[in-house]
DNA sequence: TATTCATCTGACCGATCGGTCAGGGTCTGA
DNA sequence: TCAGACCCTGACCGATCGGTCAGATGAATA
């Protein structure tokens, strides 16, 4: 059982990606990852401080770019913020589909941990921007539906090529974010 | 009849609802529920065969109505199916917001269990109906974004009154499902 | 009074979890 | 040749999980 190759670390990362995507973060044990790599659980914990360190390393690039998008949004309001947020988020979601799939369904729980508190704030600002910085319920609803729906859709369609997924999402986002006249009545119809 | 206090069962259900909604199904232990009720873990398991039985009982009404919606969709195609699916699903999602919140984020894992296999099929049919029974990527994307987004939004906005949430979601769904002119550059389906 | 029966419990079980630790190989540079 | 850094491991730990079980309690019934 000699494996004097330092590439073990990379293999662990790859295996963790596969297992997290298949059975979720909580649904994957360190032993699962070790078995897939063909090493011992202790080896996994030799290369990574703990289970969470594995996840944060896998998510790091996505988080960095998410913060960049957040920075790009500062100062923007109204339609400009809306458009930048929509295009930026669709782009991120499509490119980091795999990362989204990793934490699929565990986003709320993971956000509760203090390490990810700033991501919580970013997603709130993103939602506000998508809503055109309005408090109107309809706008907030549309923004949240888009954010959650796009994330889930990207995670589901991991195999669809970017060139197909991105324009479909962008077109949908534009339709969903069309400025709607504030008619308090016309809603009652079923 | 015999006993004047079979209300323990109801208390357990209520406590389970609260805990599942707060920390998720997997994130809630039987001991958590027992502690909240003020009884022993064994008492919880006296009233319910196992942890899953608790969840299925809590979800039963929602599942029943979901199946009814699925039945109502059989035979419908195109725009008719689309409209029925959209209105029906928005209505269900709004009314069963609490139930959605219970399994929030654990939907994919729970669906993997054989007991919920038929729900998997129902949600696939629902997605097809929302897509207007089309294979077009754009339509499938829009359908999935709506399904996932509406679910998450309802779970998030548990406190928003129905009268406010429902019309906002319906209006958004109509906008998102508007028939889009089939650009000459379509037809890149999987 | 004796019996039955639903309700409830503490003690316990095996499994699994994330994580620690002492130590054993292997390679490298002095 | 040897010291030490690096890589890896089995054994082990405490905690927690869902679940079982024999028995205590007490009210209704016969």
Primary descriptors:
homodimer, mainly alpha, elongated, disordered N terminus, DNA-binding
Description:
The structure is a homodimer of 190-residue chains. With 190 residues, the first copy, chain A, is mainly α. Helices cover 70% and strands 0% of the residues of chain A. Chain A contains ten helices and no strands. In chain A, helix 5 crosses helix 8 and helix 9 runs antiparallel to helix 10. Residues 1-5 and 184-190 of chain A have low confidence and may be disordered. Chain A binds chain B through residues 23-24, 26-27, 104-109, 137-138, 141-142, 144-153, 156-157, 159-161, 163-165, 167-169, 171-172, 175-176, 178, 180, 187-188, 190, and chain B through 23-24, 26-27, 87, 104-109, 137-138, 141-142, 144-153, 156-157, 160, 164-165, 167-172, 175-176, 178, 180, 188, 190. The structure holds a DNA duplex (30 and 30 nucleotides).
Break the fold down into its secondary structure elements and pairings.
2 copies of one chain form a homodimer.
Chain A: H1 8-23, H2 30-37, H3 41-47, H4 51-73, H5 78-95, H6 97-102, H7 107-112, H8 117-130, H9 137-156, H10 162-176
Helix pairs in contact in A: 1-2, 2-3, 4-5, 4-8, 5-8, 5-9, 5-10, 8-9, 9-10
Chain A binds a DNA duplex (30 and 30 nucleotides) through helix 3.
Secondary-structure element sequence of chain A? HHHHHHHHHH
**Strands of chain A, count:** 0
Helix content of chain A: over 70%
The CA-CA distance between the termini of chain A, in Å, is: 68 Å
Proportion of beta-strand residues of chain A? under 5%
Assembly level: homodimer
Number of helical elements of chain A: 10
Helix/sheet category of chain A: mainly alpha
- Determine the most extensive contact between two protein chains: A-B, 44 and 42 residues
Query: What does the largest sheet of chain A look like?
Result: none
Unreliable runs of chain A: 1-5, 184-190
Q: How would you state the average pLDDT of chain A, rounded?
A: 90
Silhouette of chain A: elongated
Query: Any idea what the radius of gyration of chain A is?
Result: 20 Å
């Amino acid at each position: 059982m000699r494996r004097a190759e330092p590439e073990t670390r990379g293999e662990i990362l790859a295996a963790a990606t596969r297992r997290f995507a298949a059975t979720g973060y909580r649904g994957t044990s360190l032993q699962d990852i070790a078995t897939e790599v063909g090493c011992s659980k202790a080896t996994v914990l030799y290369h990574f401080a703990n289970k969470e360190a594995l996840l944060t390393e896998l998510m790091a690039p996505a988080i960095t770019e998410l913060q960049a998008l957040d920075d790009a949004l500062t100062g923007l309001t109204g339609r400009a913020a809306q458009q930048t947020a929509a295009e930026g988020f669709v782009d991120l979601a499509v490119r980091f589909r795999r990362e989204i799939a990793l934490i699929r369904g565990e986003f709320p729980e993971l956000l509760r941990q203090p390490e990810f508190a700033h991501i919580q704030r970013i997603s709130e600002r993103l939602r506000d921007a998508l809503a055109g910085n309005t408090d109107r319920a309809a706008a907030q609803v549309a923004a949240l539906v888009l954010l959650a729906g796009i994330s889930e859709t990207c995670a589901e369609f991991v195999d669809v090529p970017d060139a197909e997924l991105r324009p479909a999402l962008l077109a949908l986002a534009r339709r969903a974010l069309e400025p709607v006249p504030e008619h308090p009545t016309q809603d009652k119809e079923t």
